[in-house]
Amino acid sequence: MGKRKTPGLNTSSMADISFLLLTFFLLTSSINTDQGIARRLPPLLQNQEKPPEVRERNIFIVKINSKDKLLFNGEIGDVRNLKERAKEFLGNPQNKEDLPEKDEKFIKGFGETYPVSKGVISLQNDRGTSYDMYIQVQNELTAAINEMRNELAKNKFGKGYADISNAQRDAIDEAIPIAISEAEPKNVGGN
Amino acid sequence: MARFTGKKVKETPGLNMGSMSDIIFMLLFFFMVITTMRESSLYVKIQVPQGTETSKLEKKSLVSYVNVGVPQESFQAKYGKEPRIQLNDQIADVSDIMQWVELEKADRQPADRPYITTAIKADMAVKMGMISDIKQELRKAGAYRIFYNARKGVRQ
Question: Between the CA of residue B3 and those of A23, B9, B10, B11, B36, what are the distances in Å?
Fold first, then answer.
């Protein structure tokens, strides 16, 4: 008996099969990068505890009513101006009397003190406000804080906020905190 | 001399396809690894609002999703046309959130529990009353880290 040669496997269809699998995964996969705005909720206030008193110059009230119209400190405002107003309020570059006080605070990452604004943006919305408007307002406030952080990072470290190290970023975050306070929900304008 | 004059027909050799499947397999594995199958189907229609200052959601394994929106057409007979909340794979009420948060906590390692983030994926037409109720429940449950899902947009 002579030895038979085993015939080689025909693998030319292998590529087709794996192509099929590949296209399946290509179609079903979604590299879903969830984008959005991160926030921290405050703990619930205990009944006997009084909310901390804030001086009038240290607070900037943004109200959104059920028709999605805005009030800044009692005056009618537009969402397009909100970023500039928030920056002016939180930064208070000319140390004006009617804008927030500053607290000289030692920040480890800087190795020196930095005047941290005592300003708080108070965001109040109605139950009838649309979620879209609320996110737009949150977005503008975030934009104001992000721009200020970026400017400070360039000043202190010579690089943008996105390019500095984590420790440096913590220092910047300490110097410019996200000072947004949300009021307990109220129903004013109806649904 | 005759051997040099013999005619030889030159044929172009066929391409060797042997390594093709290896390459395709490599691609296949790449996509298999990065792919994330959607765990639960959505019962509610959601079109998230747009924002320019969005950031990426980190640590997917520590995120639980609250979906808010109007039920899809095929489920409207069952769940109505008003915006509803979907927790994981079922429609729920605001009052179910606290219990759900506890369940989500129990699923995670104790060391990771403080870092659990609740992503609120809500339709842009939903009223803030509903969102506020959800936020109050999350505060009661001690889930303080939240994330508003939004699309990335460009500032005009």
Answer: 54, 14, 16, 20, 66
Check CB contact under 8 Å for B147 and A31. Answer: no
pTM for this predicted structure: 0.76
The residue-averaged pLDDT of A56-80 equals 84
CB atoms A139 and B21 under 8 Å: no
Cβ-contact A119, A183 below 8 angstroms? no
| Domains of chain B, first to last | 44-152 (3.30.420.270)
Instruction: Answer yes or no: is the ipTM higher than 0.85.
Output: no
DSSP state of B83: -
Q: Do B144 and A42 touch (CB under 8 A)?
A: yes
Q: Which of B15, B22, B28 to mutate to test the interface with A (most CBs of A within 10 A)?
A: B28
pLDDT in tens, B95-128: 888 888 888 888 888 888 888 889 888 888 888 8
pLDDT band (50, 70, 90) for residue A189 = very low
Please state, in angstroms and rounded to a whole number, the distance separating the CA atoms of residues A71 and B31: 49
Phi-psi region of A166 (alpha: psi -120 to 50; beta: other; left: phi over 0): alpha
